[in-house]
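I am writing to request your help with a piece of structural work I have in hand. Here, with my thanks, is the record as I have it:
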Amino acid sequence: MAVFAAALLGASACYSPSITPGGIPCGRANRTFDQDCPTGYSCRSDNRCWPPGKGPGVDGGVVTDTKVDLSTDVPLDAMLEAKGDVPIVCLVPPTNCTPAAGPNCDPMCQTGCPRCDQKCSVNTKDAPTCNVPSGPLVRQVGESCTQVSQGSAAQTDNCAPGLVCISAACGSTCFKFCHVDADCPGSECSRTIPGGVTKICDVPTVTCNPVTMLGATGCAFPAQGCYVSATIPDETRCDCPFASVTEGQNCSVSRQCFPGLVCADPGGTGNFVCERACKLGVPAGMPNGCAAPTTCNPIKTSKTFGFCS
């Protein structure tokens, strides 16, 4: 029996599986190692394992050989530790979250990615992605953030799980993914990824001044404007302008207009244009934001804000 065991061990030590060059998939987005390639093979730009001198160019010009034999079943953390790399740190998904039905990962609930250290998100083309975050996930809703590999399958950012980095005219900011309004404390699930359909929470309601004729907006950042909410016209929000629409030009929401303007339908004909914002209920003789002979007319059902016409 001892002789048989020794022979078996010797056979195992010499075992070397037949490997087809380029036949083994590899590569993990935004990682500098690959745990899938056998000893002496490198993960190339086609995400396949190739021997030295074979296959396409190496991503980033760096060969990332592995020390792991495919004939053994070694836990991933052990593989990384053997190579001297930092072990995987699993992300913590939101609690009490029900994923939406569908074939893709759910970016709000952070479910559906093949690895626990990958963040489910969408890229700037609104395509689902599963990638390792670009650095520590310390950026929260409304904070500045950084996108990496925009528009590609490798796109990722440094916003916390369940958030996504959105680029705007006044910088990139973390927004929260959502399914319904209840997922958005202090706002509504009323926005989408620019040019897409994946829903994100609107910026939170704040007290600010949309009538720039009456003073400063009161928003935290100079590039932001104070806008009347499109869904609740008595509320205001500080946000980056969506576009640069001037007074009298067509619009669909107020945030397409320059700060100090609102998107209104003066004739009630469905022809929405940017008009000067004003304050309702101002005593006669006091400035309300309108220049004579125009008057302040309510925006939808608002009792606080209106437009001049």
Q: What stands out?
A: The radius of gyration is 28 Å. Confidence is low (pLDDT under 50) at residues 1-17, 28-34, 58-85. The first strand starts at residue 42 and ends at 43.
